[in-house]
Specification:
The structure is a homodimer. By secondary structure, chain A is α/β, with parallel strands linked by helices. Chain A is built from 14 helices and twelve strands. Chain A has helices at residues 3-6, 30-38, 56-60, 72-76, 101-109, 126-135, 175-188, 200-206, 220-231, 252-262, 291-303, 325-339, 346-349, 352-363, and strands spanning 16-19, 43-47, 68-69, 84-87, 113-116, 139-141, 162-168, 193-196, 237-240, 266-271, 312-318, 343-344.
Chain lengths: 364, 364
């Protein structure tokens, strides 16, 4: 896949069956849930035998009557028929669980496209590659990086549009959601906003982008730079989806590469207030510092590459999923008090405050 | 190449011919020069037709009577005969210059091993792969990452030995040299010190390691973690070669991944005092801050992952190559005054101060 192809949008006519076997909930099926939130019209069914029989909305709280089915046979019997199987969950490590082989084999045999964000490229799997060739099916490994990426040199600084990057206190706290919601709200206000996807879910939603965490380390900043430059034409604001967290021992380098490649002029800091430590049992020794400290460390890390103007966190996006509305309001107030910045939960209370903070920078 | 193989030492019996055609000097043939400095007993000849006839020491100022020859035929006539051809220069872009094909072909036909740190893997080249198989020759692409690397989870914290990482104000300021010199000096003092190589030159010198900048971004911290864990047994001190710089817009993420994967308890900060901006014309907008600020930003970035004890820069290694001895002494004094830390140029004035600073931490 060339750089150009990586940025080629989907046709918008795909009808997905989303594989989320054994894991279809908002916590574990992040890709599935985000796709259903932002592109419900493209999803014809979800596969999860442990939740089969329920509609999607029963599990997620949104997504309407999209059915959850026990197996692919049932999905293939739907009218209109699906055109693609999309892998909607991310197994630990990113490899292909052996248990998924039969359903993938069946999908390819049925002539469906396969859309995958796994680290392990399905198109490189001898069995699937051979089968896909025989059946004329296409395998899209959206994490597969484009060839010929450069080393980052700060070229992104030269865009006319304002560069905004979502960053986080941790993985999986809402950086993609904040970016998408901000773009939508800016567009509602008539601001020409471009979204730049940097992870598999964002790419599956937007149909283009580069999964920067799958890029060889030397070229991650360059990949981010290229994404910004290709998203920039005609945009007043370029909102880039962030990845990882500077305080995540496994992924901090990806985050920093992205920051120094995107060269944002403003950051939106995303957090899940209920989380006290980096997520996942392996990281319970890493405490998430108070939010004002996190603001400062992100601003400092941008300052290392000495832009002309200091780069500031413009607003806070709180992910209060699982908390009561009263708790949510309190967490948001607490975040505002601690940081002196506007805060909201863009899903629960809308993204006006995020858009206000960004448009204020345009007026300057 | 499996992870295990990546970490398998050379036998120590290799006798290298070092290819440095047209570029054998300290500036351009960094790999060749470092190999000759640290493993002169393994180098039987250097190939550079533009400098043929001189001994190596005439060009580098060290390396004794190792001959510079015009072509491989002459090297093959030496007694004892060489066992391997090692690529000692890094061409722009990391690809294979077409002009090198004949000498590589001849080496493989003569049954020599080939050791390469190029970005382009010679073992994947159809011509060389076929030829090597026919002749039973082995091609070692030392940048090729091992398979199955994990995501970093901070496991390196659990080594008994003290973890030390060299870091820098920029690329190419002496992080490899500082690490190797520190290890040598510790061993002279009877401290069991392990060296862990993270780049192609270090790997070619030590015969093992992982070129972390060639690893997919999500797994760089995990690669560093694995390197530390495999280097740890029996070591009182594990000294890891650093890469890049936190203030280098292209490579900062590699540096941070390495830091959070290695989980060093002490840092050795390397700098080239004569350099005011990040090296290379593309980066002249990035000023290198005063050294005390660089110390602080490295310490801060370790603090983000909340180890029990703060991680401190223990000493400064100044690369004063190209400056007069008087200038060098002044730069070192200035570094000491500015940071309050011991500083030296390990090549020019020895690495006692570095070793003192590290052994002081062992006594605590």
């Amino acid at each position: 896949m060339s750089a150009h192809e990586a940025l080629r949008p989907m046709t918008g006519r795909e009808r997905y069956v989303v594989l989320a076997e054994g894991a279809f909930d908002a916590e574990w099926a992040k890709t599935a849930a985000s796709l259903i939130r932002y592109r419900p019209e493209r999803v014809v069914a979800v596969l999860d035998s442990t939740r089969a029989g329920y509609p999607v909305s029963e599990i997620l709280g949104f997504g309407g009557a999209i059915p959850i089915l026990a197996n692919l046979d049932e999905a293939l019997a739907l009218e209109p028929t699906p055109t693609a199987l999309l892998i909607g969950i991310a197994p630990q490590g990113g490899g292909l669980p052996e248990a998924w082989r039969p359903v993938l084999r069946m999908a390819i045999e049925a002539g469906l496209e396969v859309w995958s964000g796994l680290h392990a490229f399905l198109g490189d799997d001898p069995e699937f590659a051979r089968l896909a060739e025989e059946r004329g099916a296409v395998i899209h490994d959206v994490r597969k990086p484009p060839k010929g990426l450069p080393v980052g040199t700060g070229l992104a600084r030269e865009t006319r549009g304002l560069r905004v990057l979502s960053v986080g206190t941790d993985c999986n706290v809402g950086k993609l959601t904040a970016a998408l919601e901000l773009v939508d709200e800016l567009e509602r206000r008539g601001v020409r906003a471009a979204f730049a996807a940097t992870g598999q879910t964002g790419i599956l939603i937007d149909g283009k982008g580069i999964a920067v965490d799958a890029v060889v380390a030397d070229f991650v900043a360059g990949a981010a730079e290229r994404l910004v430059l290709e998203s920039a034409p005609g945009a007043d604001v370029i909102v880039v989806e962030g990845q990882g967290s500077l305080i995540h021992p496994g992924y901090s380098g990806v985050t920093l590469s992205l920051m120094h490649g995107v060269m944002p002029q403003a950051l939106v800091l995303c957090t899940k207030p209920a989380r006290t430590h980096i997520y996942g049992g392996e990281y319970d020794w890493v405490e998430i510092p108070p939010l004002d400290e996190v603001v400062r460390l992100y601003e400092d890390a941008m300052d290392w590459v000495s832009l002309e103007e200091p780069v500031l966190v413009a607003a806070i996006a709180c992910n209060t999923h699982g908390q009561s509305e009263e708790q949510a309001r309190q967490e948001i107030l607490r975040a505002e008090k601690l940081t002196g910045l506007p805060a909201t939960d863009p899903i629960r209370f809308g993204s006006s405050k995020l858009a206000d903070a960004i448009t204020a920078l345009l007026d300057v």
